[in-house]
């Protein structure tokens, strides 16, 4: 396997990533609890492409039956912050590693999760690894926090800005494993696999109100914003983000970010 280099796009931005990236709605964990049908509750889990451990920490808080959770990311900066921010979580272990070659034994996990990260993976290889480390009937959980740009003038404007400055990028596309952009239809991909079954998809809509400074921080935590800065220059990008915020912020200087959390689940076949 050729070692991917896309993870290097997050070098140096781990602190801002942890501070400004959104968390996940509580409905995710209710859906997971209803779906997981293994004979035993979720006791062992892995969060793949975990970044700074945002979802890992939420998962341990929301699913108290978990006694061991492995938080894996390819970027050492991200893994360092994940370790620092997760010291109070007993049983949470952070490793540097790749989704395509998980550093875990066969049949060791009740749950494999990838939160706003699976688009980065070589997914056929990752799905094979996920089924390898899952126990029989264990759960694979894929979720993405997406913007509802079709319902928000602010986000529509934000996506037009990105499309102007990021070569190859367009709304509805995701960063991929080779540094480009493309579709990521997890549901269809999972339904096509003989080693996975019982595929379900759920959507959760929610809204987050953030300050202008928080939104700027979020922008700079995005991997492809680095591409925009490399292409157009930091000053030009900062000026456009400021103008975007001035057009859409309310009297308090805040903007509303409309989110859709897309959830796809499946089970390892017996």
From TrEMBL:
Provide the GO MF annotations for this entry.
Answer: S-adenosylmethionine-dependent methyltransferase activity
Per UniProt, residues of the Methyltransferase type domain are: 46-141
> Its GO biological process terms?
methylation
Question: Which keywords does UniProt give here?
Answer: Methyltransferase, Transferase
The answer, when asked if Transferase is one of the entry's keywords, is: yes
Listed transmembrane segments: none
Q: Does the keyword Ligase apply?
A: no
Q: Which Pfam families match?
A: Methyltransf_11
**PANTHER family in the record:** METHYLTRANSF_11 DOMAIN-CONTAINING PROTEIN (PTHR44942), METHYLTRANSFERASE TYPE 11 DOMAIN-CONTAINING PROTEIN (PTHR44942:SF4)
The UniProt entry's sequence similarity note says:
Belongs to the methyltransferase superfamily.
Q: Give the protein's recorded name.
A: Methyltransferase family protein
Give the originating organism: Bradyrhizobium sacchari
User: What lineage is this protein's organism placed in?
Assistant: Bacteria, Pseudomonadati, Pseudomonadota, Alphaproteobacteria, Hyphomicrobiales
């Amino acid at each position: 396997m050729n070692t991917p280099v896309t993870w290097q796009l997050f070098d140096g931005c781990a602190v801002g990533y942890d501070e400004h990236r959104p968390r996940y709605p509580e409905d995710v964990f209710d859906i997971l609890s209803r779906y997981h049908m293994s004979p035993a509750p979720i006791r062992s889990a892995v969060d793949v492409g975990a970044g700074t451990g945002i979802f890992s920490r939420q998962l341990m808080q929301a699913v108290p039956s978990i006694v061991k959770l492995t938080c894996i990311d390819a970027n050492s900066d991200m893994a360092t912050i994940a370790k620092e921010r997760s010291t109070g979580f007993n049983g949470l272990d952070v490793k540097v590693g790749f989704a395509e070659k998980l550093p875990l034994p066969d049949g060791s996990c009740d749950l494999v999760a990838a939160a706003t990260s699976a688009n980065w993976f070589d997914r056929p290889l990752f799905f094979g690894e996920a089924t390898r480390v899952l126990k029989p009937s264990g759960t694979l959980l894929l979720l993405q926090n997406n913007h509802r740009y079709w319902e928000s003038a602010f986000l529509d404007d934000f996506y037009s800005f990105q499309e102007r400055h990021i070569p190859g990028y367009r709304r509805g596309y995701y960063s991929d494993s080779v540094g480009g952009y493309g579709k990521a239809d997890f549901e269809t991909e999972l339904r096509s696999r003989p080693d996975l079954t019982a595929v379900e998809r759920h959507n959760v809509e929610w809204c987050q109100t953030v300050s202008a400074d928080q939104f700027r921080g979020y922008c700079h935590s995005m991997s492809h914003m680095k591409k925009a800065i490399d292409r157009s220059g930091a000053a030009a990008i900062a000026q456009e983000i400021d103008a975007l915020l001035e057009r859409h912020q309310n009297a308090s200087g805040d903007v509303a970010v409309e989110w859709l959390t897309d959830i796809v689940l499946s089970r390892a076949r017996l």
